[in-house]
């Protein structure tokens, strides 16, 4: 309960039960005035005893700020990067497995693959052939005319690389090499393309001949 000094009007909070049922003599802590303070009203005493005690605490710094979304866990970011790398590796593997098909459909890709990975990167060596049994030759005065076909055994169209006619001596050793090209620069799937080479003034030492690709197809 609140007690007021009759002399200086100072107000004090006093426990009502400390005054007792009949009241008691009290003294002002400010002006030292003494007087008899009667007991608290029964209703006021009952309310004072039933009001629960509570504590007012200062607000925590930053408690009124909006919530900040925490960053994603590091393991989730790592998993995302790992998944991206695996997908990229898978795409490259599929492209490499189908490199022959891509090279046949994209102009210039076969030359690019040859330049980067070498002439054996594409598998055309086994599917482009120059059958020796289909080579024919005739002599026209001092000239030699050679004819034949290139066979594509694959299921896709392929580029025909340059050719060369090699004339050799009977005991081995190249006498001369004559470069030439086929009648078409591409051969269809499961198809053939013809070629013809003419060599003027064949050296007398040349007794055997071979037709081959100037570079690996």
What does this structure look like?
The protein has helices at residues 42-50, 74-97, 99-105, 109-117; strands at residues 2-4, 11-13, 24-27, 34-37, 128-129, 136-140, 143-152, 158-159, 163-168, 174-180, 186-187, 192-199, 208-213. It contains four helices and 13 strands. The longest helix has 24 residues, at 74-97. 23% of the residues lie in helices and 29% in strands. The protein is an alpha+beta fold. The chain is rod-shaped. Strands 5, 6, 7 and 12 form a four-stranded antiparallel beta sheet that branches. Strands 10-9-13 form a three-stranded antiparallel beta sheet, with no helix packed on it. It folds into three domains: 2-50; 79-124, no CATH class; 126-213, Immunoglobulin-like, CATH 2.60.40.3230. The relative contact order is 0.10.
Q: Features of this protein?
A:
3-stranded antiparallel beta sheet; rod-shaped; 217 residues; 3 domains; 4-stranded antiparallel beta sheet; Immunoglobulin-like; alpha+beta
How do the helices and strands line up, and which of them pair or pack?
Layout: E1 2-4, E2 11-13, E3 24-27, E4 34-37, H1 42-50, H2 74-97, H3 99-105, H4 109-117, E5 128-129, E6 136-140, E7 143-152, E8 158-159, E9 163-168, E10 174-180, E11 186-187, E12 192-199, E13 208-213
Antiparallel strand pairs: 1-2, 3-4, 5-7, 6-7, 7-12, 8-11, 9-10, 9-13
Straight-line N-to-C gap: 109 Å
Give the class-level CATH name of the largest domain: Mainly Beta
Supply the number of structural domains. 3
**What is the H/E string?**
EEEEHHHHEEEEEEEEE
Task: From the alpha carbons, calculate the radius of gyration and give it in angstroms.
Answer: 53 Å
Beta percentage is 25-35%
CATH T-level topology of the largest domain: Immunoglobulin-like
Give the helix proportion (percent range): 10-25%
The average pLDDT value, as a whole number, equals 78
Main sheet characteristics: 4 strands, antiparallel
Number of strands: 13
Please identify, by name, the CATH architecture of the largest domain.
Answer: Sandwich
């Amino acid at each position: 309960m609140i007690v007021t000094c009759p002399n200086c009007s100072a107000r004090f909070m006093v426990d009502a039960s400390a005054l007792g049922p009949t009241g008691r003599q009290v003294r002002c802590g400010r002006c030292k005035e003494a007087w008899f303070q009667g007991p608290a009203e029964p209703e006021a005493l009952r309310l004072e005893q039933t009001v629960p005690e509570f504590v007012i605490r200062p607000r925590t710094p930053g408690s009124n700020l909006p919530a900040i979304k925490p960053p994603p866990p590091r393991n989730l970011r790592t998993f995302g990067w790992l998944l991206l790398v695996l997908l990229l590796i898978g795409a490259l593997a599929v492209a490499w497995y189908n490199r022959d098909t891509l090279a046949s459909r994209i102009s210039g890709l076969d030359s690019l693959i040859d330049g980067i990975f070498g002439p054996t990167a594409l598998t055309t060596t086994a599917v482009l052939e120059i059958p020796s049994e289909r080579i024919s030759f005739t002599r026209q005065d001092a000239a030699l005319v050679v004819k034949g076909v290139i066979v594509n055994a694959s299921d896709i169209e392929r580029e025909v690389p340059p050719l060369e006619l090699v004339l050799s001596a009977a005991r081995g050793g190249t006498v001369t090499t004559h470069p030439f090209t086929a009648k078409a620069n591409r051969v269809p799937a499961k198809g053939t393309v013809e070629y013809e080479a003419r060599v003027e003034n064949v050296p007398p030492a040349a007794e055997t001949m071979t037709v081959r690709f100037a570079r690996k197809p």
